[in-house]
Structures are given as C-alpha cells and as structure tokens.
Design brief:
The structure is a single chain. The chain is α+β, with helices and mostly antiparallel strands and 206 residues long. It is 23% helix and 32% strand. The chain has 4 helices and 14 strands. The strands form 4 sheets. Strands 3-6-9-10-11-12 form a 6-stranded mixed β-sheet. A 4-stranded mixed β-sheet has the order 5-4-8-7, with no helix packed on it. A two-stranded antiparallel ribbon has the order 1-2. α2 runs antiparallel to α4. It is globular and about 50 Å long. The two termini are 31 Å apart.
Length: 206
C-alpha cells in the first residue's frame, strides 16, 4: 500500500476522527482512495490504466448475464459499511448488489453489507490488503462471494462461505482455467482467467 502523507488537520485539543482524516487525505490528494478497516486507514493511489481496463472488461459478463437489471445492479466503487469498527468502511472495485441498495444507506457514503452479493478487487500496489486484510473484513461483514483478480501472482481467487476471520472456501485459478461463480449472485457467470488477467496487464506492441 502506498500511503499519502498528510498533516494532522486538527489542533491538539480538538477531537478528531479517522473519517475526518480520510476526508482530509482525499481533499489534498485527489484520486486517492481511502478506506478504514479495523480502525486503520488504507490509502491507495489512483488506479493505472490496466486496472481500469480490467474492471471494464469484468463488468461485461455480469451485465450480459442480466445482473445489471431487475433484482441486482453491477456497480463500481460503492462504499460498504463494515462491522469491524465504528468508522470502518471499504470501497470495493466492483460489486453485485441488490437493486434496492439506495434504501440501505448507513453512513459516510457506505451501505449495509447485506445488500452485497459479490465484491471484487483488482490488486494494485496494496495487493496484500486485498489478500489478507479485506478477506477478514468482508467475511466479518458476511459478504457471500469475494473475488480477487491477483495481478501480482497472476491468479483469480474466489472466496465463499464467510466464517470468523476469513472464508471457509478459498479457491484460486490460473491462466488456462475458467471459473464459474456461485449462482447466489443472481445468475451463472463464468470468467476466463487468462483473459481476465491479460486485461489487467499493460498493453504491448506485439
């Protein structure tokens, strides 16, 4: 994780909150994503083009399966309230949520985790957070399906069956394989691992 430096925005005698510090960081460093998990700030720099490209291509099979109509929506960068701390929230890269998510706002632009059927992260420089810190946090929030497109190790991880401290079922897939996600997300979706990982790499002139 690449953390942005930020001066303490309050006088010593004035109370402060992690949420206020997060807002200060984002104001001073536009494009940075700030999350609070387990009482700790996670600061991520702006995504690179391959990261954004991977998300665009990943949305397509979910939309083609009808998950952006009717009972569900396919969204990016939506705040998910976490039960791990009073101010805790995460901002997954991509989510499948119930269509009535607007009715389940909690606070700080974050929504009740009960609305989330799937969360997906495409790793950046903070890949350790996606593979460890967020595993425990999303499991604590009882998010049923967590997918990680691991650009660092060239794998796609699929975690299901949340339990205390993590997920009871953790499978990973390599190029040459495909993965069919649980139909609990609302439709059958199969991802081609090689194509998914290739989208997250810089383009070459070959």
């Amino acid at each position: 994780m690449s953390a942005a430096s930020v001066e303490q925005p309050f006088d010593d005698d004035r109370p402060f909150s992690l949420t206020a510090i997060a807002d200060e960081i984002m104001e001073r460093h536009p494009g940075y994503r700030v999350e609070i998990i387990g009482g700790h700030l996670l600061v991520t720099p702006s995504p690179d083009a391959p990261h954004a490209r991977a998300l665009t291509k990943l949305m397509r099979p979910f939309i083609a399966a009808g998950l952006d109509d009717g009972e569900t929506e396919v969204l990016q960068n939506v705040g998910l309230w976490l039960p791990t701390g009073a101010e805790d929230y995460a901002i997954p890269d991509l989510v499948i949520v119930d269509a009535d998510i607007d009715d389940h706002f909690v606070q700080n632009n974050a929504y009740d985790p009960a609305c989330f059927r799937l969360v997906l992260e495409v790793t950046s420089s903070n890949w350790k957070d996606d593979l460890k810190t967020k595993v425990a946090a999303y499991a604590e929030a009882k998010v049923p399906v967590y997918v990680v497109v691991d650009r660092k190790h060239q794998r796609v991880h699929v975690l299901t069956e949340p339990i205390v401290g993590g997920y009871d079922n953790h499978q990973f897939y390599s190029p040459g394989q495909s993965v069919t996600l649980p139909d609990s997300i609302g439709a059958e979706v199969t991802l081609n691992v090689a194509e998914t990982l290739k989208a997250g790499q810089p383009k070459t002139n070959d």
